[in-house]
UniProtKB/TrEMBL annotation:
It comes from Brevibacillus gelatini. Gene3D superfamilies: 3.40.630.30. Keywords: Acyltransferase, Transferase. This is GNAT family N-acetyltransferase. InterPro entries: Acyl_CoA_acyltransferase (IPR016181), Bact_Acetyltransf (IPR050832), GNAT_dom (IPR000182). PANTHER family: AMINOALKYLPHOSPHONATE N-ACETYLTRANSFERASE-RELATED-RELATED. GO terms for molecular function: acyltransferase activity, transferring groups other than amino-acyl groups. The lineage of its organism: Bacteria, Bacillati, Bacillota, Bacilli, Bacillales. Residues 6-145, 152-286 form the N-acetyltransferase domain.
């Protein structure tokens, strides 16, 4: 059987549907929940090839997507139809993605592998990728009763708050400032994303962001300034964010947290989130 790899800067509606259906097949077969970020796939810039599709007899049997937030690395998620595995399909998709990253001067690939996907972990070992960390995917099941005070408030961020947000990201997530600025530029002006400043006694002590799509809301970019941690501001801010989202009618609320971040994990669990799955991240230098 002949396989054809197609590279695209922006997938058509038909291709997006094919990727969605392939994910359903792979998830059901492997008992996992692949992280392919469908909302990001629909919003490609169209400037560079970032989606790689493999066809056999005009049927999609393999997919690899690049998710690039800054120029130091490209996150990778992909899948191969169960009936077409061990035939070099993912290797071919990976090679095409590596070539594109080299052209753009991106030095590393970071593969997202479902913790339950044994074939994925074995492949990472085979190509020499180095394990870095794991993240839990958490869903809100039943919001905990958190006494909401008036000391902590949320305020929608505006363009005038850009520098404050950048410094909160640098300090809260311990990231390089240049990287934070690049990520902010890439994610700016997305109508599905909203960022809020966390105010405590009118001081800007943290930030939290929400992505809204359909009936789903995803909380991300949540941090409290290191000097303000341990004062209960984070729990209050998260509870207020949940209240805000649910008042808007969103019933499906999720977030991610690093597995080793026990403090954050405990915070999320105290507000009603439960762990649903986990992803391992592996780095491969090009």
């Amino acid at each position: 059987m002949e396989y054809e790899i197609v590279t695209t800067k922006s997938m058509s509606a038909a291709q997006l549907e094919e990727v969605s259906q392939l994910a359903v097949i792979c998830n059901e077969h492997d008992g996992i929940d692949l992280k392919i970020n469908p909302s990001m796939l629909t919003k490609r810039s169209g400037d560079y090839p970032e989606d790689f599709l493999c066809y056999a007899d005009n049927k999609l049997v393999g997919f690899l997507g690049l998710y690039i937030f800054h120029n130091k690395e490209a996150e990778v998620s992909g899948m191969v139809h169960p009936a077409h595995r061990r035939k070099g399909i993912f290797t071919g998709l990976q090679c095409a993605a590596e070539e594109e990253c080299r052209k753009r001067g991106i030095p590393d690939l970071v593969f997202i592998v479902q913790k339950k996907a044994q074939s994925g972990a074995a492949y990472m070992q085979r190509i020499g990728a180095r394990y870095e960390f794991s993240e839990y995917w958490m869903d809100l099941e039943k919001p905990a009763q958190v006494a909401l005070g008036h000391a902590v408030q949320l305020r929608p961020a505006t363009a005038a708050d850009d520098e404050t947000l950048i410094q909160l990201n640098v300090l809260g997530f311990k990231l390089e400032e240049a990287m934070v600025r690049e990520m902010a530029e890439r994610m700016a002006n997305d109508p599905l994303n909203s960022t809020y400043l966390i105010l405590a006694e009118e001081r800007e002590v943290g930030k939290i962001s929400v992505n809204r799509e359909g009936q789903k809301a995803f909380i991300y970019g949540f941090c409290v300034h290191p000097d303000e941690q341990g004062k209960g501001y984070g729990r209050q801010a998260l509870a207020k964010t949940i209240e805000l989202i649910q008042a808007e009618g969103f019933t499906d609320v999720s977030l991610e947290v690093a597995c080793e971040n026990n403090r954050a994990l405990g915070l999320y669990e105290s507000c009603g989130f439960v762990v649903k799955s986990a992803n391992d991240y592996y780095r491969l230098a090009l």
